Every structure is written in structure tokens, then in C-alpha cells.
Known about the structure:
Chain A has helices at about 5-10, 40-50, 75-80, 120-130, 135-150, 160-175, 210-215, 270-280, 345-350, 355-365, 405-425, 440-450, 510-529, and strands spanning about 15-20, 25-35, 55-60, 95, 150-155, 180, 180-185, 220, 225-230, 235-245, 250-265, 290-295, 295-305, 320, 335-340, 370-375, 385-390, 395-400, 430, 460-465, 465-470, 495. Chain A is of the alpha/beta class and about 525 residues long. In chain A, strands 1, 2, 3, 8, 9, 10, 11 and 22 form an eight-stranded mixed β-sheet that branches. Chain A has a four-stranded antiparallel β-sheet with strand order 15-16-13-19. In chain A, a hairpin with a 5-residue loop joins strand 17 and strand 18. Chain B has one domain (about 35-210). In chain B, helix 2 (about 25-40) crosses helix 5.
Amino acid sequence: MSLTDRIARGLESGWNVTDSALLTQNLTTEADVIVIGTGAGGGTTAEILARSGLSVILVEEGRLYYQKDFKMDEQTSYANLYQEGMSRVTRDGAIAILQGRCVGGSTTVNWTSSFRTPAPTLNYWAEQFGLDELRPDAMAPWFDGREERHSMAPWQVDPNVNNDILRQGCEKLGYSWQIIPRNVKGCWNLGYCGVGCPTNAKQGALMTTIPGALDNNARLFHSLRADRLVMNQDQIDHLEASAFADDGVTPTGIKVNLKARHFVVAASAIGSPGLLLRSEIPDPNQRIGKRSFIHPVNATVAQMPQRVDPYYGAPQSIYSDEFNFRNGVDGPAGYKLEVPPLHPGMSSGVIPGHGENQINNMAGLPHMQSVIALLRDGFHPESPGGTVSLRDDGSPVLDYPVSDYLWKGIREAFHTMAEIQFAAGAEKVRLMHLDSDWYTNWADAKAAINQLPMAPHRVRLFTAHQMGGCAMGSNPQNSVVNGFGEHHHVGNLSVHDASIFPTSIGANPQLSVYALAARNSTRLAQRLS
Amino acid sequence: MNDHPPPSNSRDFTNLDRRSFLKTGLGGALFLGTVSVTAGLSGCATQPAGRLSAVGTRMDASYQFRFLTADDIALFEALLPAMIGPGLPEQPQARNTAIAGTIERIDAGIHKFGPANQKELRRLFDLLNFGLTRVTVARVWSSWPNVTTAEADAFLERWRTSRIGLFNNGYIALTKISNVAFYGYRDFWHLSGYPGPPQYAVDALPQFQNA
């Protein structure tokens, strides 16, 4: 393996990294701070705390995969890098959940879109949840800092055809569109961000904050699941964790106890509420796991006359916010429009079908184009979000009922997406819906969209953005942590991930997580030093 | 929530009023739970198939099954010809190899799903394998090794078009794991016209060079 790889070089230089699969006996150790999770929130926290001179232990349930493992292959990546081997769904099975499970978390597999938290969202938080200190002006320096740390900039290369069709359709219809900022350095424009960046161009946690933390003497345990935070009186005393074998899923029976002065939970909007619930952390108003948001995603696919090759090129480079805040921040559901990459495994899994129909769908892949709508949930009384709770085995599960308010937004988004694809010259369009045909003109598609049932399972829904469940707010009655991610009731507990968002974001959330984690970790470092 | 009924070709369940089914949704879930127990008691294969003998099977004898039982394998042998249809090679040996390899990759994929989703799939597969529920719930009259491709297709179509969410969910689970295991595999990329990762990148990147 080439030692130009950041991770290979670091391991060679003696980073303190423990593959918990290799542990042969139980272990107890300690540090100033235990950080649970190595994604956008955990990585940022670990780097900032370690640089300030604190001793830090990072705990990751997934395994350490890096360039040597990233071979642009869907099947191995979905099995190894995603939660539940890419089979995670909501409790009723109606919404597929795409979420990373590896060192770097979802930043290792995301499509690199890097947006600041929209100003209307931050202002809404200030007004509704007493988070005045997070107004856009106050957050601007933190966004600046993280944009620099993760090399975020609007994509300078021409968009691939898949993205350009969204641009063309918007242009024809007079809808606004913009170029997406991406967190990449020396990107080869290959199109495999979702299966682990093969060139180390993606500047997610894996290439930035994790190496930064390890260079500053942080210790990483991977293949180690945080089971339970154990309280002693009103403080957390230690974390109980258990190891997985090198397949990432089989428990080895080895237990690790980690003691610390302070504990930062950054295990995602499903994992963090899950850990706090398992730990029976004080929750007098039963707020843990409530108000979970997901940016519900629906999609259409189009058959284009030209070659699209939707599996090649930067997966996301064009977006449209025409419909995102157009009805005000808290009106009928708004949605952001983007494009997903289409590789054969993923496409065959998300386009519902079998037999001859499916092979015909799949045979059109080189000419296939897709648009997705990300609904902005959580800004309206009829969009209260979902609930994370525990299964009998202690694992977290998200229950997300789709309200009529959201179904209305989903139907509108189908209209918009099909209209854009026909405007851009699509020969035919179909919805990601069990009852959809291919429609050869906009009038037919429009009529069908008005008729088709907007119902769970029949509409194929997805989420790649999990938020909320440990909401921040100034009032402990309706929140779990304060505006600095500090738990309202337990003094040595903080939450530094997307679970603290009191609504969804209205944009891909990685930069929102990086920026808030940087701000809150800087404060935490001062407190602890 | 459901503004318009879906197309009316879900004829097999017209006697099952949707509202009353949803009311008994909990009962339905419990019923599925009991199937796994009953299936075990009545002699269905309940252990992972492990390493099957190459004789009498079309499997790669070196593959160790972690989740699928011998009955599950028979189920997928019956479903895949309908699931993939004309995508499967016609030449018998190539066809058998394609089916066997896909079933192995389905097993390998499910191994990574973790306990919670494995439990859900176990209920689904037991429901389909257990004679009583196969007939009454899936409306498949023959045992899977005797099911024709047309019958398997009709079953999938019933569950796709059913107005009962539980069956739609079963349809999605079955097609998703099968489609990803088939179309996502390099031997079948040509069916979707996917050329694979760009060759210049493969040639240039260190992880593809033989260590």
C-alpha cells in the first residue's frame, strides 16, 4: 500500500488505534474525554479537544476502512460501510435509511454536498427554541472555519449530464438553480463518493479531523459498540462497550470499560438517542428520541435521448432551492431538489420492480437520469417528526409516520421533478412508486401524479439525513441539551451531532454538524482545560 | 392518508377489508412471530445451511451459508427466475451458476444486516416456507421446488399490487435483496450497460495493484 495514504502513513507512524476485534481480554482504560462516534460531530470534537491538550478516546462501532478498501464496488461497500448492511429502514419498513457505519461515519460515504445551515432555519430556531446565539451572523465564523478545514468550495468542473439535466430543466422553466459546494481536494470526478472515496480527495472526517485527532495523541477504538453510559449519582462514571469481530457484526464477547471526566455522544440521530435511552439518562420530560427528522426523499427517473452515464462524475453538483422556502419557513412543506448517482446495484434496489419490467428498467441505465426532492420536515405543527425507541434487544429503531402535510409536499415534489425532466427533454419519466408506469409526456405524468395513492410502501421513500431526537433548546421542558450541546441535567455529558437539531436543516447537513460541533467543542475545551 | 385506491388488480385480498386488517395489524405481527416457532416444530429447516455438499446442489461447495436455510435456498431458487426473468442466462449450467451465486451473495448480504433485520427476514421466509401460511397468506399452492416461474411471478405481482402494506413491504424486501445481489455483481453489469469503474482509475490507483 502506498504510504501517501494519510491513514496508512499514520498507522505506520504509530497512531494509537485499536481494532477491538483483536482484543482477547476485557479492558478498562480512561481519558479526559470519551467521544462516542467518529462522524462529522465526533471527528470534529476529538480533533479540537486533542489539540487543546486533553486526552481523548474515540469509540466507533463500525470498522476502520480506508483507501486500500475503497475499490469502487457497491456490494462490498454497502455491506461494510453502511448501517445494517444498507438494510436499515423505519419501523414499518416504508422508508429506507442510508447511514454510514465506519470510521468517519456518514462523511465517509456521503456525496460531498456542503451547505451552510440556511438562514431561515437558524432564525426559526432562534424564535421557536430560544437559540438566539445561533443566528446566521453568529454562526458565520464557524461556517468559514469549517469550510476551510474541509476544503469546501463550489464545484469548478462542469456538472455531469445527470446534474446538468436538473440545471437545464430549471433553466427552461425559470426555476432558480445553483452550483453545489463540495468538500474535495484534487477530486478525480469519478463518481464513487458513496462507496468510499477511492482517491482520498473527499475531505470528510476520515481525511481531516480523525487524522488530526490521532496526530495529537487521541486513541481510537473501532469495531467497538457503546452499550451504556453508567451513572454514579448525578454524573456519568464510565462507558460500557462491547467488541465486534472483524466481520463488523458478530460480538466477540469482549467488554471494554472507558472512564472519563466528560462524555461526548456523537453517534447519529438514531444512535445517540438510542444510547441515551439504553443508559436511562435522566429525562424528566421524556424528550429523548422525540422529534426525529429525516428530510423524507422521493424521486423520479427519466429516460433521456442522450447518454447520461449517471454512475460517473461528481454525484451532486447542481441543486435548486426554488421550492425550499418559497411558502415561508413554516408554510406548506418545502423541498430542495438534487440529483442522486445511479449505479446498477443501488438503482436496481430503489427502482421497484422484478422480471422483464425490471430488466427493461435496468437496460436503460446509461440513459437514465434521476431527480430527488428532500422535504424540509419539522417546521410545521403537522410535521412533528418521528420517534427513536429501543427494540427488545436494545437496538434503536426509528418510527416515522408520514403526515398528510408531508404527503401533500411529496405529491407536489413529484409534479415538479417530472415537469423539470420533461422540460429538459426526457423521452419518458416514471415515479419511484409501486403503481407508476413510464409516462411519455408531461400531461400524462401530471394526470397520473394527481391520481396515484400517496401511501406508505407504495411511494418509495428514502432518507440520507437523520436529525433530531436529542433536540437543543433553551427550555429543558422541550429539549435535551442547551445551545452548546450540553445536557440539561447531566453535567459531564454533551451531544455533538445532528441529533441536537430541533428541526431538519433544509439542506444536506454535514456542514451544519461540523460547524456546531466546532463551536461547542471549542467551548468544551475551555471548560475542561 | 390514502386519497385514491391503488389499481384494482389486487383481487386476491378483496375479501380482506383493508381497515379491519390494519386494526388487527398487531395481531398480524404476532401471527408472523408465531410462524417461526411453528415452522421449527413442524420440521422446516431452521438452521443456516452451512456448507452444502456440491453433490446434489448447484452451490459452490466452498461457500459457508450464515443465514439462509436449505428451505430458504429452495425459495430463492424458485423466485429468482421470476425475479430476474430474461436476465438469467439460458444455457442450463450457466443459469444454475448464476442463480447459485446470487443466492450466496444474498446470504452474504443478509449476514451484514445485523440481528434486528435478520429477525424480520426470518419471519418472512418462514411464512413463505411453512406450508399452511404459504398457501393461506402467499396463495402459493405448491411447495417452492415445484412452483413454476409463472406462479412465482404471479405471487410477486400479488404482493406488489396488494393494498396491504405488509405484503408490499415483503415484496420490496424480496426484490431489493435479490436485485442488488444480482445487478450489483460484476458478472451482470453488462445487463444494465454499466461499464464498471473507469479503467484509467483502476490502472492508476494503488488499491488495485496486486500486493
